[in-house]
Amino acid sequence: MTTLREDDFIQSIADAFQFISYYHPVDFVRALGKAWEREENPAAKDAIAQILANSRMSAEGHRPVCQDTGLAVVFLKVGMDVQWQAKRSIQEMVDEGVRRAYTHPDNKLRASVLLDPAGKRLNSRDNTPAVVHMEIVPGNRVEVTCAAKGGGSENKAKFAMLNPSDDIVDWVLKTVPQMGAGWCPPGILGIGIGGTPEKAMLLAKESLMAPVDIHLLRTKAASGATLTTIESLRLELMEKVNALGIGAQGLGGLTTVVDVKILDYPTHAASKPVAMIPNCAATRHVHFHLDGSGPAVLTPPRLQDWPAVTWQPNTQSATRVNLDTLTKEEVASWKPGQSLLLNGKILTGRDAAHKRIQDMLNKGEKLPVDFTNRVIYYVGPVDPVRDEVVGPAGPTTSTRMDKFTRMMLEKTGLIVMIGKSERGPAAIDAIRDNRSAYLMAVGGAAYLVSKAIKASKVMAFADLGMEAIYEFTVQDMPVTVAVDSTGVSVHQTGPKQWQAKIGKIPL
Questions:
Q1: What CA–CA distance (Å, rounded) separates 398 from 351?
Q2: In terms of pTM, does the model score above 0.85?
Q3: Which one of 152, 212, 315, 338 is least enclosed by Cβ atoms within 10 Å?
């Protein structure tokens, strides 16, 4: 009989979520390195370089790889011969571990969990409660998998109850382009097939916890060995999803996914449940066992495991922009895909701030911030530690702000927006009508971006925490013109061009 102590379990959970906040799994880093080597689209190659440089910086600095430090998800397989020396429930112990991890003074993580989700949506301030999945299994130890899942990738989860005769590959290839780039590719697709609706979703999530091993499967297939149905399906989807040409950050390119994971389960004769959940460029999970001998020992990866990829602002090819003297005429001169380095002051704001601005305008109230000829950055930064001006501060998914775009451009004087991934038709129409522009920063490069922020102060809505309106002073902050003043979107043109090219390029 194994006895697990409450303190050991809590400490292991806390250590795990700190660990994955700044260490990518090495298998994922190596897969990104291979993707960078073979990428032929300069914009996508640059985006992957930023992600890899950011990953190494985070590993060295012990700061989050992404500003969205994720909702804590824990998978537990508890041996039937394990005895607990604890006063708290397993959920309570997990939550205490998460609380300690996310409020750690040396590496504060962003609290993103909101209580009363259908009502007041109040931040719990410590990222609890966690989502816990538990299974009782034979044995005398506890197997633990901790994952931090960001909202950008979770929001793109898909589910369908297919007819038994429907083709899974067809559904995936139709659905992935509908997900856009808000899940920050290149990443991993997790697919669950069978069971019941909730079982399929759980299978998809659990499949993402496995190491990147599609290269081993390719070797097996090349050797002539017999593949299972699931193995053949993984290989087919890997090739066909990448052939869509979506590419890194949705800019078009050779690599959209570095692996496709699939778990299945028996299902009803009348059913074919299929779920799909992506892991983003900030893939974060760790796996360990507890046997009663103390807290888990997590071995850090070696820095030499990272590819020799560096990134610096390209002052030769990029255009420096002075935000403090920016005019609508200058904005109108920018071209789709143009690289810019931003200098000066920008404002920030996300969903909650935009909703509050809308309510104030509807009531005829004066806004606390003047947006005239200003730029807004869609970001919810991590709190700073030590001598930082701001913690990791990468972009959030811009489409969530689409419904506010026309209001902001026509009623506040705003002229430019910065975020990640594509904009929808309504936002693009508003950008074109107002001769504005939308700039894209790389999702998954939050720590790198934060180094371009030289000053930060809260301007309004301080009660919203990370969703408050800040003013950042930036120096050579790298962005790409994603939608120009005529409404041309690189997220529409890029994937189309690369899908056509890939049709002629063997993957």
A1: 10
A2: yes
A3: 315
